[in-house]
Write a structure and sequence with these properties.
heterodimer; A: 81 residues; mainly alpha; B: alpha+beta; 8 helices; elongated
Chain lengths: 81, 236
């Protein structure tokens, strides 16, 4: 099977496991869900290393920026009490 | 195929956007909003992932017909030496000496891109090995990926389906490549004698292109469904 197909299947499975699992744990913070989706993206990406249509993986850049924003937000929340 | 992937990716992303907005603004259910966001990310990923432009069987047939052409050409010449894979500005060529002699690979680099070339006092055949254009299409110069094993796996396993796995070991001026689960064996004795098996010639062409150095197949051991190739890197 092509590594791109494996990457898509694995990533879809990981995300579809994350949502019901966190929902079952009564998790109501949206940023926790998004952070996990982003982490899963990078994990699957580093395992399968798929090829993209574009020269650079711009989605990774967007997701990483969102992740940084979420983390910064959390740190600020803790610091400001 | 490519448009189907792109269309389904965009459709998923649009559906995900609608679902997440609806769940967030109207239903106010966080897990459902998260599911919508997951679908947006997945849709975008599907849309940007590289598609398989041609069926693997078609690629194999095209490569095989290119080999049969080279085989027909080689039958007309008495080739006694193994080919040297010479990377040039435009593409990598396979140079087959027609006389038993030691030739400086850098001399071949300067020869014009013709079929029959004269290097010093000796003549040789200069052929374009199969899959050269496929390697060029990978844009190796622009990609950050320079791992030989990864590129060989992409070529031999993902793109052409000629093998099931690739392993490489580097030792000074030689690279040992082990290719497992060979799926296509060619019937071209002259080709195999001079350029190596199909997998070996693709391997040598790829290594020469990546390293931008002339290479030669020193040894090739063909076993059941497996081949071990010893590629020598020539020049400094």
């Amino acid at each position: 099977m092509r590594k791109e197909t494996l990457f898509l299947i694995t990533y879809a499975l990981l995300m579809m496991i994350t949502v019901p699992s966190l929902a079952a744990l009564n998790e109501n913070r949206l940023d926790v869900y998004i952070s996990l989706f982003i982490l899963e993206y990078f994990v699957a990406n580093s395992i399968f290393r798929p090829r993209y249509r574009t020269k650079h993986d711009f989605l990774a850049l967007i997701l990483f920026t969102i992740f940084l924003y979420i983390v910064a937000n959390r740190i600020l929340e803790i610091l400001l009490g | 195929m490519s448009d189907k992937l792109l269309t389904s990716g965009i459709a998923l992303a649009v559906f995900g956007t609608t679902l997440s907005l609806f769940s967030h603004l109207i239903l106010q259910i966080v897990p459902l909003t998260a599911l919508g966001i997951a679908i947006i990310i997945l849709g975008t990923t599907i849309a940007i992932t590289s598609p398989q432009p041609l069926p693997k069987e078609t690629i194999q047939l095209l490569i095989n017909s290119a080999i049969q052409n080279i085989e027909a050409l080689l039958e007309e010449f008495t080739t006694i030496e193994k080919a040297l894979y010479i990377p040039k500005k435009e593409r990598t060529y396979a140079y087959i000496p027609l006389n038993p002699t030691q030739i400086d690979p850098n001399q071949i680099k300067r020869t014009p891109n013709r079929l029959l070339v004269k290097v010093g006092e000796h003549y040789g055949l200069q052929l374009i090995p199969p899959a050269t254009e496929l390697i060029k299409a990978l844009n190796l110069e622009t990609t950050e990926e320079t791992n030989i094993e990864d590129i060989l796996r992409t070529l031999l396993v993902d793109l052409t389906d000629l093998a099931e796995g690739v392993k490489t070991i580097s030792k000074e001026n030689t690279i040992i490549v082990e290719i497992n689960g060979i799926k296509l064996e060619i019937e071209a004795p002259n080709y195999i004698e001079t350029l190596g098996s199909l997998q070996a010639s693709i391997t040598a062409t790829t290594i020469a292109t990546i390293l931008k150095k002339p290479v030669k197949i020193l040894e090739e051991k063909l076993e059941k469904n497996k081949t071990t190739i010893k590629v020598q890197i020539l020049g400094e």
